[in-house]
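## Example record

The block below lists the input lines for one assembly entry, exactly as stored, with component labels intact.
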Amino acid sequence: MVDPKAVLHNLDELRALTSDEQGAQRVAWSPVWLRARAWFEEKLKDLPIEHHYDAAANHWITVKGESEKALVLGSHLDSVPNGGWLDGCLGVLAGLEVLTSLAKEYNGKPPFTVRLVDWADEEGARFGRSLFGSSAFAGSHTIEADRVRTDREGTTLEAALRSCGVDVNRIGDANREQKNIAAYLELHIEQGPILEKLNKPLGEVQGTKGVERWAVTFHGQEAHSGSTPMDARRDALAAAAKLALEIRPIALRHPQSVATMGSVKTFPGIVTAVVGRCETTLDMRDLDAKILSEMLREAREASERFAREERCSVEWSKIWSIEPIPFHPELIKLCDEAIIETAGVSEQLPSGPLHDAAEVARIGIPTVMMFVQSLNGLSHNRAEDTSRAHIEQAVIALNRLAEKTIGWIQQQ
Amino acid sequence: MVDPKAVLHNLDELRALTSDEQGAQRVAWSPVWLRARAWFEEKLKDLPIEHHYDAAANHWITVKGESEKALVLGSHLDSVPNGGWLDGCLGVLAGLEVLTSLAKEYNGKPPFTVRLVDWADEEGARFGRSLFGSSAFAGSHTIEADRVRTDREGTTLEAALRSCGVDVNRIGDANREQKNIAAYLELHIEQGPILEKLNKPLGEVQGTKGVERWAVTFHGQEAHSGSTPMDARRDALAAAAKLALEIRPIALRHPQSVATMGSVKTFPGIVTAVVGRCETTLDMRDLDAKILSEMLREAREASERFAREERCSVEWSKIWSIEPIPFHPELIKLCDEAIIETAGVSEQLPSGPLHDAAEVARIGIPTVMMFVQSLNGLSHNRAEDTSRAHIEQAVIALNRLAEKTIGWIQQQ
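Predicted structure tokens for the full assembly:
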């Protein structure tokens, strides 16, 4: 049987090893991350497993089964700087416990192969490229775009990878790991407030929301704050402020939409000048591609209206986008059952944040994620937390889901 | 008689000597500024004058009259970086022409002493301290605050002054120049669009507006842009955006008020996070102290209301303030007459920007300023301009005002 307390013990040990008073410091390609991975390798000793790193530095742990068809559990050990103790590593350490338990249960030879993957650089914290390892695995990675990436110190991605023994030209070879995968499961903290608000410990994830990410810049006329009458101004900030407020009703028209203006920069940005140029960023998400494109259109039209009202102009430049990625309906149903058997109640919810599971699902591998409640909806900082009782329930539910998924693979 | 073309000639010569393709570069305490001042000294040769620099590097040029009572004309040769060809130096070069003309008219001995002052570092562009020389003259300078000022390269104000032969400990001695001053006149470009809109070349200035300058910071809760539902957010930017829009009706309730949010900074300021902290600056101005304090109160109350609405908090921290400084009513009347005699029409308007004249007026010296029309309301950049015909009218009108002021001093 699965031992949830062992997972808590490992989480505590990893926190002690890789955090400081500002939080977790397991930034991918850093010495602390390598230390976390070395610590994790120690945990694999004496287990009946094979393990290796693929060409993109994803770490694969395998219990061979009767069939080569494989159930994969996964998540990531890397964190953002000053991150939390659960984001990513909960899924890896719970996955290890489930893997160990399944190996024991079937005397080292389960009916199907069971694998655990620790994806490399999910966060993209240092080079701005999230889902690095899982997108290399999925073949959606673009090496050319990554060649020019540098961190704040000017170190190239290529050099950082090389120092970890990874050749950037070969990362596409990670797609060989796709072979024989029949299903993928990922446990993660919610990182939002929904489950806590509903007083439910766990939920099954419908899929990851599509994201439209744009730079929106308003151009007005820089002018002296003392000598320019109010009615003679072309204030780029005023147009941007209207958009910052208008994206909220646009998002609120749909139950699961979110829209965020996360960054505003003013130029010249001094106390004595009317803002001549205002650079903003917009991030919009929904699980429904049609709703998402409608939101984008509405925000764009609103920005053009506000620009006209303020005698400014506006330009939109795409930063990045991804389509909504739904998870597998039958695995969602199994996840719901596993949660109800464990906690009595469940909830179906979309994931706003992206996860490695999205990269796995988009190449057609049946995938589902399970969320465990976050306290105060906080993540990506040291205040990130989940009650220990809920973590234990999550491990038990993930184990149930793994067993159910093995049964489901058998039926295919 | 005064020769307006000589002023244009000098302005062109100074522009050629001290500008590059980005505009004027006569930043105070820089080699280019010293070059401008050396060029100006050359213009004084062969004139029947005495000249010297005071303890704060203000340059005083004196034509001794029958009486020691003095009429002073003034402005500044320094500019902002990438500045215009007229801001400041128009007043100095027109003043020189008027001084020369008066000396000739009275055969080197006018009834009163006539002086011209080129104030040091009006712009405060390098160390953030505007009206440096004139406030030393007026005794409102605080040496202690200036000791710690540094420029972007880390050079201290004290060291920059020393390299120009100025001892920061002695700048207060500039107040000796106050002696016997009976009136102060300053010609300046408007730097705003009012006169152009009214199609009037010149206007007399009622005084300089009072200024309330504050840092206004909203505190909300940083949150993940993907996982945080719209109704669970405490978005500091939303509260700030409401204030950016609300200061406009507050200012528009009064005919001459202006209110500007010139800088907005978002933290963490990334595309994927709801803004947890939003730092803004507010600059409000009016000629009426009562209206100004009412605007401040209204803006403050609005900010607190918006903070409550967005479940944020707000804090106000004063950056700087100055009271409205009215100019002398009789000199305003003389200025109006001089303008009407020159251009047929005039206009009374306040100055939104501060000027050295404000420092002179606040110690009780009868003071007035004359504005000449700016094209497109632009200043502090190379696009700053005024038609040459209007510059010529300005020189003639300033000369008339100087003559009238001598008459007025005589009547006192």
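Chain B touches chain A through 63 residues (CB under 8 Å). The longest strand of chain B covers residues 210-219.
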